[in-house]
Amino acid sequence: MSSTPSLREQQHPLIRQLADCIEAVWHKHLDLSPYHLPAELGYVEGKLEGEKLIIENRCYQSPQFRKIHLAALHIQ
């Protein structure tokens, strides 16, 4: 992932807590290792219906899953 600050820090506390909980469960129950995405896919900025859109992808792999990811989306 790039040096861009985590989008999660900008989200509503309940959304941030949910994302943290999902990742904690994954780490507890799965043997995760990083799944390397091309740099341009880890953090994406664009426009959706005229509004700024930011997507942050966190990707992992495990023996149980080829790829598992959590995408955070923020519309400004």
Key structural traits:
four-stranded antiparallel β-sheet, 76 residues, 28% helix, single chain, 2 helices, alpha+beta
Structural overview:
It is a single chain. This protein is α+β, with helices and mostly antiparallel strands and 76 residues long. It contains two helices and four strands, in the order H-E-H-E-E-E. It has one domain (7-75). Helix content is 28%, strand content 36%. Strand 2 and strand 3 form a beta hairpin.
Total strands: 4
Low-confidence stretches: none
**Percentage of residues assigned to helices:** 25-40%
Distance between the termini: 21 Å
Structural class: alpha+beta
**How many individual helices?**
2
What's the short version?
The chain is an alpha+beta fold. The chain has one domain (7-75). It is built from two helices and four strands, in the order αβαβββ.
How do the helices and strands line up, and which of them pair or pack?
Layout: H1 13-29, E1 33-34, H2 39-42, E2 43-48, E3 51-61, E4 68-75
Antiparallel strand pairs: 1-3, 2-3, 3-4
